[in-house]
Amino acid sequence: MSETNIGTSSGTQRARKQRKPKKSQIPYAILLTALIIAFGFYLGRGNNQLPVYWGFGIAFGYILQRSRFCFTAAFRDPCITGSTSVTRAVLVAVALSSVGFWAIKYASVLKEAETNLNMAGVSPIGLPLALGAVLFGIGMVIAGGCASGTLMRVGEGFLMQMLVLVFFIAGSAWGAHDMGFWGKFNENAPKIYLPDVFGWFGAILVQGIIIVLLYIAAAKWQEKKMGTME
Amino acid sequence: MAEFTLDCLGEACPVPLMKTEKKIGELSVGDVLVVSIDHSCAMKNVPEWARKQGHNVEIEEVDDGEWEIIIEKTK
Fold first, then answer.
1. Domain with B27 in it
2. Is B63 in contact with A73 (Cβ distance < 8 A)?
3. Domains identified in chain B, total number
4. Do A144 and B56 touch (CB under 8 A)?
5. How many whole angstroms separate alpha carbon B32 and alpha carbon B24?
6. CATH code for the domain in which residue B11 is found
7. Mutate to test the interface with B, among A140, A151, A158, A226 (most CBs of B within 10 A)
8. Where does the pLDDT of residue B6 fall: very low under 50, low under 70, confident under 90, or very high at 90 and above?
9. Beta strands B3-8 and B32-37, pairing class
10. What's this model's pTM, rounded to 2 decimal places?
C-alpha cells in the first residue's frame, strides 16, 4: 500500500509511508482471555460475588473501549462542534439504566426485605454537589476523559492519561479525607427522590418524559449547529 | 490541490478535533489534510465531524494505536 487513490474526483495520488509489518496480537488475546477466566475461578473460591464483579468489570471496560463511549464528549461536543450523537447515546443509556434501577429498587421495596434499597445512592443537593460538578466538568475536559474514560485509555496505553490517573487517585483520596468537612454543608440540603414525589410509576414516567425531551432538544441542537440530524 | 499535515500525536480529545477544525478553515477547496493521531477517541470524533461537514474522509491505521485521517476539503 505505498500508493493509494483516495477516491477524489480529481484522482489525487498520495505516496504513503510504507506500513510497518504488524505483529499478530491474537496469541496475546487468547492468553489474556485464559488468564481472565483463570483469575475468575481463583476469585470464586470462597466468595460467590467476586467473580460476578470481575465479569461485569471486564465487560464494562470492553464495551466502553469498543464503543468509544465517552461521557466527557457527551457534554463537551455539543459546545465545541454541535455534534450530539454521543449525548444522545448517553441519554439512551440513562433511560435503560433508569428502568433497571427502578425495577431493582421497586422489587426491594415490594419485598420489604432487610436490604431495602429505596434510598440507596440518593444524595443531597447542596453546595458541595454544585461545586464538585463544576470542578469535575473543567477537569474532565482538560484531562480528556472522565473517570471510566481515563481508566479505559490507561488500559489502551495512552501515556498522558497515566499522569491523569495519578492525580485522579490523589484527588479521590483527598476528597475522601475531607468528606467530613463537606458533609457539614449538606446537613440542611434537600434530598429529592422522584418516587417520593410522584409515586413509583409516576417517577419512571416523569423521568422518561424528561429524557425524551432532552433527546429531542439534543437532536434539534445538532440540526441547528451542523445542519444534519443524524 | 496542496497537501497539508497536522501532527496531533500525544494530544488528547478534544485538541485534535479543534486543531483540525481550525486548519480545515484555512484550507481551500480540494486541498487534502492528513491528521496524525494516537488517541482512540479522536479517531472517532474527527472523522465523524468531517463527514458531517461533508468532506471526504479516509482513516488508515499506520501502526498499532496510531492513525492517519485523510480529509479532502470539498466545500
1. 3-72
2. no
3. 1
4. no
5. 9
6. 3.30.110.40
7. A158
8. confident
9. parallel
10. 0.77
